[in-house]
Write a structure and sequence with these properties.
The structure is a homodimer of 481-residue chains. Chain A has 481 residues and is of the alpha/beta class. Chain A contains 14 helices and 23 strands. In chain A, strands 4, 15, 16, 18, 19, 20, 21, 22 and 23 form a nine-stranded mixed beta sheet that branches.
Chain lengths: 481, 481
């Protein structure tokens, strides 16, 4: 037993030594870690203050509180316009249906809808919201594997552009519902390739299952089959991946024409285009950051397909193919999420507490995995709101929720942080708000900076009263209410 | 290129063949997978209907909707009473301070407080809620690494039992605040051992850092140092782990007495006791379930330390030590979370869609990782609400949120599920509600079955209007509000 303990201690000491040496060597190199330029987001340091389109971010924080999301309306609109550009030589471009789930802010939806975007919804709630916002039925597409009866009835009743079907069971339900309502339902079939998501989603082309369900759907008098839908799921970073996605779809279009004499009136190519300044971190990178404090290197934004290049390729490839084959041109639909809103928003957060450790400091932020869970597994640039002349230091940026797993950045090299220093975490416009919880802390406010430079509070922070507004108090006599 | 493609296809086919053979072999054995008995939760099949304390669960679902959490008040109270039992030969037992973050339902808190439990809070919101519920200041402990200024002021002003300090910086802040308020703050120091959580939490004993901060705290006239706090974090399943946790603490008590002549008036042993019917799944188990459809085997509830055994050990070991050393007896405090409420609640969910696959079926539930994220990495028993004579079938139980990662059970063997079949997912009383998001779907209602057998709606489901109640609509003229 003693021997075992001694051996264990030796091993542990050796491990500590190697780790320390490794840390020193690596972190010296890492301290000059490259960062993305603030200019990518219309940010710059004016004096020592980080400013957004000329406005000091610290003034926003002191006015609106912390944490805080900032929406950049101009970026939102320019992103959308990039998708909407029509490729040279073609008349019609891409119709954008924004993926509501990505960043569920009604104000953002309204801005996008006003510029002509439709709504891609995946639940009864999202369908309700699209209708509430006045989105025309012809600009709503309904995806998702769990469509409630009430939502299908509403979708059929309003005659939305397409209810996209995942499997034969859904097909039968929708036919039956349409028959009961005395209506015709406009539907699409979601198909899958081995290169993308499969599972509960859609029907595989390669097994013949997709063709078979198309055959069944076309035989149903209550259904108007309008759409061929294929959402890749796995992210698209480059032209080659997009091309192969499109060629897969177009090959199946030809098969549908040949075998069922059917041509899609709507070709829905799905979403999945990446945000250029965000990338997934590998397990190895996370481990290196955890153990050796090596920060992951930034993505190369210029290597990622832009919305405009994406749209141009989609339009050119699809329209040329339909033209060559003599098919009538379809409406071409895309359902961008992260590539449309991801980089049009960022989050401000403040250091609540500091704990010095041997080789790095813990900086406890007021936003952790409760508000920004994806930062634990994705590269998101982070900037201090004030550039100080303090020496560079490795910080582990953790959240407030009292759990060891609440770490956003394992190793972030910043001028020595102090309490109340503020940081901007970039690209919070995809899956920050969608995945947020109210774990012990309120969800934050969202302020938009409009194209005319106004600050608009588009979502209030949760108040404590709001957090218990659905609760039944005074369970027992004599309790305070 | 051709050669490469052929080789890839061969490899892929071989992989598919091996996988299929393995699946068949393993799933045949797995189909008789053992399950925990429904009786562990006062559930039983009456005829084919799953009933809870004599009440058919299907009637609850049709009355209150789906998904739905059910709180068992009797179990809640009996769990608390188990913790509160005093060990033979001792006068005073354990004081329970419920970890609010674990299952944030005010009605549940009220029940626990009425039975004498205090509140362990980690944020300004939770402190506000404890005070709102009328919890006496002497029954509130404030932990957490991100304590806001306002919350510290309130905690000092109300003179709560203990503000537990994580590091020297917090100590200085609290002293300064107390001085400014002209008050004395009751504080504790959170210490850590190598066997438990460290990181941003507390001060390590082994390096001398904990002792040093105690020394500093005792020198501050504005602080009344009442508490020695050590929360393990890593779960406690057995007596040995608990004993080693206690011995670590008591050894440090002796060091504090010897070096600083200080003895804790409050010994806060933290939480971390496991729920007996829940356990973490290893990566290997998840992989086996994913690839070969082998369901993880259930935990052995009888091998897990009960709340009563836990309390008896804590009280016996601590009181004996203080007695032997001639120290005045402390208040002994524990901060249970999952072990107190985990198994006093379960969640009902309904199949929304089915997709048949070769070796298993996807059943899409109306609750996924949006409402039950921990089920993806923990064993949680699941029961069908109706026992059908249908053949056993492997199901992959996935959620509604339109993401490949939304899987709760990789391989669950149940009589062939159909749409609208309902399931009970057990032990939803820890970190289901705390970690819940409103991702595209409303968060569900919570109904309590009281000790007198009443059904009380203790939390309403989020309505669609509630989901947008903090949003600013009509961003632009002409938009509907």
């Amino acid at each position: 037993m003693l021997k075992f303990t001694a051996h264990k201690r030796l091993k542990s000491e050796l491990k500590t030594f190697i780790k320390a040496a490794g840390q020193q060597w690596l972190s010296t190199a890492a301290a000059q870690n490259p960062r993305l330029s603030p200019e990518l987001w219309q940010l710059e340091y004016v004096g020592n203050e980080l400013a957004f389109r000329g406005r000091a971010l610290s003034s926003l924080l002191s006015k609106w509180g912390t944490p805080l999301h900032i929406v950049d309306e101009a970026k939102l609109i320019s992103n959308l316009e990039s998708f909407q550009k029509v490729a040279d030589g073609f008349e019609d471009g891409l119709e954008v249906f924004y993926s509501y789930k990505t960043n569920p802010l009604p104000w953002v939806f309204e801005v996008l809808h006003q510029q002509g975007a439709g709504a891609e919804v995946i639940s009864e709630y999202e369908l309700w919201l699209a209708l509430k916002l006045g989105v025309p039925a012809d600009k709503i597409i309904y995806n998702g594997p769990a469509k409630s009866q009430a939502s299908l009835e509403a979708a059929i009743d309003k005659n939305i552009l397409s209810i996209n079907i995942n499997n034969a069971e859904e097909l039968d339900r929708i036919s039956a519902l349409a028959a009961a309502l005395g209506k015709t339902a406009r539907v699409g079939i979601r198909v899958t390739s081995a290169a993308g998501w499969t599972g509960q989603f859609g029907l595989p082309v390669e097994t013949g299952a997709a063709l078979e369900v198309f055959r069944q759907a076309l035989a149903q008098p209550e259904l108007s089959v309008t759409t061929l839908h294929c959402h890749r799921g796995n992210l698209i970073y480059d032209e080659d991946t997009l091309q192969s996605h499109l060629h897969f779809l177009l090959k199946f279009v030809d098969e549908l024409k040949e075998k069922l004499n059917w041509i899609p009136a709507v070709l829905d190519v799905g979403g999945s285009l990446a945000t250029p300044t965000v990338r997934y971190l590998s397990k190895k990178e996370i481990k290196l950051a955890t153990t050796f404090l090596v920060p992951p290197s930034p993505p190369e934004p210029q290597s990622v397909l832009t919305p405009q290049a994406y749209a141009e390729t989609v339009v050119r490839v699809v329209r040329s193919h339909f033209q060559q084959q003599g098919y009538p041109q379809p409406r071409i639909v895309s359902e961008p999420g992260r590539s449309l809103t991801g980089n049009s928003q960022f989050m401000l957060t403040t250091v609540q507490n500091l704990k010095h450790d041997a080789s790095f400091d813990f900086a406890v932020l007021d936003a952790g995995i409760n508000l920004a869970s994806c930062v634990a597994s994705e590269y998101h640039e982070v900037f201090p709101l004030q550039l100080k002349s303090a020496p560079m230091r490795c910080h582990r940026l953790v959240g407030p929720i009292c759990h060891m797993g609440d770490t956003l950045y394992m190793a972030s090299y910043l001028p020595q942080l102090e309490r109340q220093d503020a940081l901007a975490i970039m690209d919070s416009g995809a899956y920050f708000i969608a995945d947020a919880t109210s774990f012990a802390f309120s969800q934050p406010a969202v302020v938009a900076i409009t194209t005319s430079g106004q600050e608009v509070l588009i979502r209030k922070a949760e108040s404590f009263d709001h957090l218990v507004s659905l609760d039944h108090f005074a369970a027992k006599e004599g309790q305070p209410s």
